[in-house]
Amino acid sequence: MFVKRFFEPSLAQASYLIGCQSAGEAIVIDANRDVEPYIQVAAQEGLRITHVTETHIHADFVSGSRELAHRTGASLCLSDEGDQDWKYQFTHDRKLKHGDRITIGNIRVDVLHTPGHTPEHLTFLITDGAGADKPIAAITGDFVFVGDVGRPDLLEKAANIKGTMEAGARTLYRSLQTFAKQEDWLQIWPGHGAGSACGKGISAIPSSTLGYEKRFNWAFNQKSEAHFVNEVLAGQPEPPTYFAKMKRVNKEGPVLLGEFDMPPRLDPSKLADLLKRKALVIDSRPITDYASGHVAGTINIPFDSSFVNWAGWLVQTDEFYVIVDAATANARLGELARALALIGIDRVSGYFDASEIKGSATVPQVTPSQLQTKLSNVTVVDVRSANEWSDGHLPGATHIPLGYLIDRLDEIPAGKPVVVQCRSGGRSSIAASILERAGFRDVTNLAGGLNAWTASGLTIQSQRAESARQGPEEAA
Q1: What distance in Å separates the CA atoms of residue 417 and residue 414, rounded to the nearest whole number?
Q2: For 33-83, how does the pLDDT look when each residue is reduced to its tens digit (9 = 90+)?
Q3: Which CATH class is domain 268-356?
Q4: Helices of type H across 73-152
Q5: What pLDDT does 464 receive?
Q6: Which strands sit side by side in the sheet containing 365-366, from one edge to the other?
Q7: How far is it, in rounded angstroms, from Cα 60 to Cα 250?
Q8: Distance from first CA to last CA of the chain, Å, rounded?
Q9: How confident is the model at residue 173, as a pLDDT?
Q10: 2-252 is classed in which CATH architecture?
């Protein structure tokens, strides 16, 4: 048996190619949209991809299952479990039910229905029939992670399907109780690692065993179903707004993409006209470069490990342009277009070479001690997550998470200086660019964010600490 784990850092997403070397056949599970790596590895190993499947209808990226099946001629096998409203709506070769089996040469792939994260979710038990009659591993998708489990609230929070959150949590609890009866040696090969918004405490360790998770994963060690429901729903990160689109796209059938197209290079003289008509132009250079000099009206989303996440939140139009660093324009532009296509943004309207763009606008910085002396005269906007805010925030700050900022600009008073702030200064720099583009003229970034504020010994307010001191009745 040949096993290859693929990991996409921009999504913290794992997928798997499993092949029977004697039969020369392979299956791919949970492919993302860039299918070329699967095809290349299969060819290098002398394998033909004969089956493609996935654990569930994904919310955080565009599935590559349909693309890969189309490119290779493989049989596309998808879940037929769960509610009718959340079944796949496009043509595929086989509808999978609990207890079904896919055979790849000597390898058996047995299907378990493990709902909770989503109603149709499947787990695949992998048995190397050439040397064993029991499964060696379970590909668990977004059911069981290392150290965590898949969140059951996305249908309600991201797809706006009301009343599904608590029911999903209870279903997830029962799925875990059933799954725990498998052998402790069973390896766990999950669909995500640390950094994914599909869980709240996913480990960076790529795999585990069921026995280890039963002992150390919080989800297997709750006193009751009620305790589990409360714990699994508490403290989940805000789901990016693009998750709702991903659910719909993956249910209805992703558009077949082929190869990733490179956007056209544009003459720098066109930039002023684009900005004049409020076209979205993303400056993808590092935060420090943007802060020291940029063209007013652009927004800064640095092309780093968080690019896909913030692009998914903030790109809300089909027409947008990017500015890329001259030193990496040719090499990284393809990577940028690929990264966007992973979340269904299939076309960049055009790009500018940063070396040809001269911008004089800056993002002013303020130190904690400077801000402390004028807190009463400015509006501090904290753009961190709700969990971070609850742990502690600046006195009198206004809380608007970065992903929601564009839609909540009216909550920021006009005509008053604004200081934006996050944990260390990165997200708040992006926020400063959004406010500048929206017409706010006096915007400053807190250098070093809350980390620098607390390191300076300055006071913070903690919602959780205050609630604990008051007790549940007073805090309510």
Answers
A1: 8
A2: 999 999 999 999 999 999 999 999 999 999 999 999 999 999 999 999 988
A3: alpha beta
A4: none
A5: 54
A6: 365-366, 443-446, 418-421, 379-382, 398-399
A7: 10
A8: 57
A9: 98
A10: 4-Layer Sandwich (3.60)
Q: Can you say whether the dihedral through the CA atoms of 455, 450, 473, 201 is positive or negative?
A: negative
Same fold, 2-252 and 268-356: no
Q: Tokens for 223, please give them.
A: 């006193």
Q: What size, in residues, is the chain?
A: 476
Domain ranges within the chain, ordered by starting residue? 2-252, 268-356, 365-475
| Spatial distance between the Cα atoms of 59 and 249, rounded to a whole number of angstroms | 9
327 token code pair? 């030193």
Integer Rg of the chain from CA:
24
Read off the pLDDT of residues 115-126 as tens digits, 9 standing for 90 and up: 999 999 999 999
Which pLDDT does position 259 carry in this prediction?
Answer: 67
418 close to 442: Cβ distance less than 8 angstroms: yes
| Pairing verdict, β 320-324 and 350-353 | parallel
Residues serving a catalytic function are: 422
* Secondary structure of 441-460 in HEC code, one letter for each residue: CCEEEECCHHHHHHHCCCCC
Top-level CATH class of 365-475? alpha beta
Amino acid in position 13: Q
Which residues of the chain are modeled with pLDDT < 70? 259-260, 326-331, 463-476
- List all residues 6 or more positions away from 106 whose beta carbon is below 8 Å from its beta carbon: 1, 20, 22, 23, 128, 129, 130
What pLDDT sits at residue 161?
A: 80
In order of 119, 123, 367, the CA distances from 114 in angstroms are: 8, 6, 50
**Nearest by Cα to 9 from 151, 145, 192, 143:** 192
Residue range 412-467, pLDDT digits in tens: 988 899 999 999 999 999 999 999 999 998 999 999 999 999 999 999 998 654 44
Q: Containing H/E element for 351?
A: strand 350-353
